[in-house]
Design brief:
This protein has 16 helices and 14 strands. By secondary structure, the protein is of the alpha+beta class. The strands form 4 sheets. It has a 6-stranded mixed beta sheet, with no helix packed on it. A 4-stranded mixed beta sheet has the order 5-8-9-12. The chain is globular, with a radius of gyration of 24 Å. It binds flavin-adenine dinucleotide (FAD). The site of flavin-adenine dinucleotide has 20 residues, from strand 5, strand 7, helix 14 and helix 15.
């Protein structure tokens, strides 16, 4: 029990039966050695190992309230601002490992179930004791140090109507039956990043609201990825063999999958919300889950902005482009982005308050602002990288050139102001992988959408933001008389 090692994670990964479809190939075992998953599996293992490293252990773990063993800090229900700061330090350590390129490190969803379990009364009692279910589930995940994926969105069949009005009412996953053992789910959800997780959470969207017609779709539950009838249909892998050619894709391609529920039985003790649109609409906000997910996401985004600033600074310096004011200005903008994200984190922690559930909860105003600003700023980071590297981002011949007869030409014509040819190309390959390769393109899409559609998020932000104090100031000046 307690915080696990990377080796234990890899053993668990390979011994879990799951139905992962990669094109026509059904991957059922030895997942950790499959070309699509090898790199990311080792990266996740390295994150697990960080928890047990002597110098990091105090930050990465805390004492389990039930077993008194060390367990991952992202499971900690913070009671004080010091607890919150420890959570941030832990999440920063994991985010820095991949330069913010991994969105589904375990802390993202650990934070969500941590908050939900603290707010267990919200789930209430219905056909089953939902409150006890979420609480027990959180403890189970914490004590076994599992890694979760999640899926919140219905398939993109016809977005102009809700799930109940689609051509086929079973396109979106919904309750098909209820038995003495549990709820039977049929249909699909889109999308789940990291199909090599241990368990999948199927929860309501943080953004899209359901009406009464959507009751069969208004459900929250968790099941192991080995559940019978559960299928993950993967996209093409962006993982690459060569760490020289694809320094990021070879290690951090988390993979994304559509999730199919072929009459999957969800045992009663794994159901948290059932056919309850009202509760489903409120679950993320009322429990504080969305705040803690946003906290983790902002920490990762700050780490990514810092990494990207470092990468483009090195690209510019390598070719002497750092001497030009427009290059300096663009990179300065990226540094401003990094500082803005860090300021949001600090501000959210400074304004943290104990919630009705007894949890020290960061101020959501800065975090919701970060959530809305990041999808607008992140594409700019990629643009600056391209503007800085220019054609150098295409002067990146595959690794084979190093042992070829054009090596002499390579050494001569690819050298740069501060680096020899091999080192310069290595750096530019990383820059391209971050913003332009298939992996880089997916990064761009991820940052634009992972927390929801930015257009609807902005409308929700507008409606939610307390604008009255600002209105009042205008009113005061409007009617000002000397
Ligand atoms: C790389 C990647 C990884 C992801 N990983 C996960 C994951 O692990 N788990 C998970 O749950 N989700 C994941 N997502 C999905 C993410 O939650 C969604 O992308 C996001 O919620 C937006 O939904 P959508 O993609 O279905 O876009 P859609 O809702 O289909 O939107 C498509 C377009 O139509 C517009 N639009 C649609 N409906 C409306 C409307 N009612 N009003 C106004 N405009 C509208 C949108 O603005 C957008 O331009 C991932 C997404 C990406 C890109």
């Amino acid at each position: 029990m307690g915080a696990k090692s990377g080796r234990e994670f890899l053993q668990r990964l390979d011994s879990t039966t799951r139905e992962v479809w990669y094109g026509g190939e059904k991957i059922t075992g030895d997942v950790s050695n499959h070309p699509a998953f090898k790199g990311v599996a080792r990266s996740i293992a390295a994150l697990y190992d960080m928890q047990l490293k002597p110098g990091l252990r105090d930050v990465m773990t805390y004492e389990s309230p039930t077993t008194h063993e060390p367990v991952g800090t992202s499971f900690m229900q913070p009671r004080t601002k010091e607890d919150l700061a420890k959570r941030t330090a832990m999440m920063t350590a994991w985010a820095n490992y991949s330069g913010g390129m991994m969105g589904r490190t375990a802390d993202y969803l650990n934070s969500s179930i941590m908050a939900m379990a603290a707010a267990k009364e919200f789930f209430g009692k219905g056909e089953t004791d939902f409150a006890s279910n979420i609480s027990r589930y959180y403890e189970y995940v914490r004590e076994n140090d599992l890694i979760l994926t999640h899926t919140l969105i219905n398939p993109q069949a016809n977005r102009s109507v809700g799930p109940s009005k689609q051509a086929d009412p079973f396109i979106a996953a919904r309750v098909a039956d209820k038995t003495s053992e549990g709820v039977v789910m049929r249909g699909a959800r889109m999308l789940a990043t990291l199909p090599i997780a241990d368990e999948i959470l199927v929860f309501p969207s943080t953004l899209i609201r359901s009406g009464q017609d959507d009751a069969p779709y208004s459900i929250a539950f968790a099941i192991p990825v080995s559940a019978k009838g559960l299928k993950f249909v993967c996209r093409e892998s962006f993982a690459a063999e060569s760490a020289y050619d694809h320094p990021l894709a070879s290690r951090f391609d988390e993979q994304d999958a559509v999730v199919v529920f072929d009459d999957v039985l969800v045992p009663w003790d794994r159901v948290f919300v059932l056919e309850d649109p009202d509760r489903a609409n409120r679950v993320n906000d009322a429990t504080g889950s969305v705040v803690f997910m946003a906290h983790q996401a902002t920490v990762r985004e700050a780490a990514k902005a810092e990494f990207m600033a470092g990468l483009m600074t090195m690209v510019a310096e390598t070719i002497g482009a750092d001497a030009f004011p427009q290059v300096q200005e663009r990179i300065a903008n990226v540094l401003l982005t990094a500082e803005t994200m860090k300021a949001f984190i600090r501000s959210s922690e400074a304004g943290a308050k104990v919630s009705q559930w007894g949890v020290m909860t960061p101020d959501y105003v800065p975090l919701n602002s970060a959530k809305n600003l990041w999808p607008r700023l992140a594409p700019e980071l990629a643009a600056v990288m391209k503007q800085t590297g220019a054609s150098g981002l295409m002067a990146i011949p595959p690794e084979g050139v190093l042992g070829s007869e054009v090596r002499k030409d390579f050494d001569r014509y690819y050298q740069s102001k501060t680096a020899d040819a091999e080192e310069r190309v290595r750096l530019f390959k990383m820059a391209w992988d971050a913003v332009g390769s298939s992996f880089g393109g997916r990064q761009d899409l991820y940052e634009r959408f992972f927390f929801g559609d930015p257009v609807r998020m902005a409308s929700a932000y507008y409606a939610w933001y307390d604008k009255e104090p600002y209105r009042q100031r205008v009113k005061d000046l409007l009617h000002w008389r000397e």
